[in-house]
Amino acid sequence: MRLVRFRSFEKPMTPRHRHLLDHIRQHGDTSVDELARLLGVTTQTIRRDIRELEDARLLARYHGGVGIPSTVQNIDYDQRREMDSEAKCRIAQLAAARVENGRSLIINIGTTSEEVAKALRQHRGLRVITNNLNVATILSNNDDTEIIIAGGLVRNRDRGVIGEATIDFMRQFKVDIGIIGVSGIEHDGTLLDYDYREVRVTQAIMEQSREVWLVADHTKFGRHAMVRLGSVAQIDKFFTDLPLPPEAAEAFDKAGVEVIVASQPAT
């Protein structure tokens, strides 16, 4: 089997790139001509944008158009860290501001979850359980935070810990707040991810948390991943960066989820 390597996005994502991606996530496969009309540029410009986004594995070209890439393989972890990093930081700061000192938490795998850990570094008296070695490293410099790391298989690409031993470990605890990220959110409120082993750990985290807080930016809506994690009915609070799409807003409202939007800072 041939190993295919994808290069990362080599320059900052432009507003046009973001608009293009948001349109395809919301409307599905789209022709080059339609994207050119939508964005008011030439088809040559759109094709260049598509090549760059395809190289970064954010889009896939199909016969006659472009669409969302594979539902079975996530974007490279280092690349995800750079994507919408400012929005993730705002989300994390908003979530951390809601965490009182002296609380017990479980924080799972994910780039936004790691941003939450960064925003918690000045908190006092926390007890944090995690299956994310990056989260443990981030919080380890705070002498007033106790960190408990789950055992299991370390996934090299993102330093996440997964597997049956991880699930058994999580089931020993009952914490105040479980902070989780996901790879995709369907407009009907279904939560999705790529790795069934990671999904099973996250499900255990949700079961062992008195409150479940979901942290995810707007790009997760309409993003298709293969494994069903659960539904928004299992979430208590949702921290995001933009108002929800109307259909998704209805699903969150019906489930009674408190939605907290980290607004763009004033300029």
The tally of strands reads 14
Order of helices and strands: HHHEEHHEHEHEEEHEEEHEEEHE
Average pLDDT: 86
As laid out across the biggest beta sheet, the strand order is: 5-4-3-8-11-13-14
Our Rg estimate from Cα atoms comes to: 19 Å
Percent in strands: 15-25%
Residues in helices, as a percent range: 25-40%
Runs with pLDDT <50, length 5+?
1-10
Specify the overall morphology.
Answer: elongated
**How can the largest sheet be summarized?**
7 strands, parallel
Which structural class do the helices and strands define?
alpha/beta
Straight-line distance between termini: 51 Å
Number of helices: 10
How would you characterize the overall build of this protein?
- The protein has 267 residues and is of the alpha/beta class.
- It contains ten helices and 14 strands.
- Strand 13, helix 10 and strand 14 form a beta-alpha-beta unit.
- The longest helix has 13 residues, at 15-27.
- It is elongated.
- It starts with 14 loop residues before the first helix and ends in a 6-residue tail after the last strand.
- Mean pLDDT is 86; it is low at 1-10.
Topology:
Elements: H1 15-27, H2 32-39, H3 43-55, E1 60-62, E2 65-67, H4 77-82, H5 85-97, E3 104-107, H6 111-119, E4 127-130, H7 133-139, E5 146-149, E6 153-155, E7 160-162, H8 164-170, E8 175-180, E9 184-185, E10 190-193, H9 196-207, E11 209-215, E12 227-231, E13 237-240, H10 246-254, E14 258-261
Parallel strand pairs: 3-4, 3-8, 4-5, 8-11, 11-13, 13-14
Antiparallel strand pairs: 1-2, 6-7, 9-10, 10-12
Helix pairs in contact: 2-3, 5-6, 6-7, 8-9
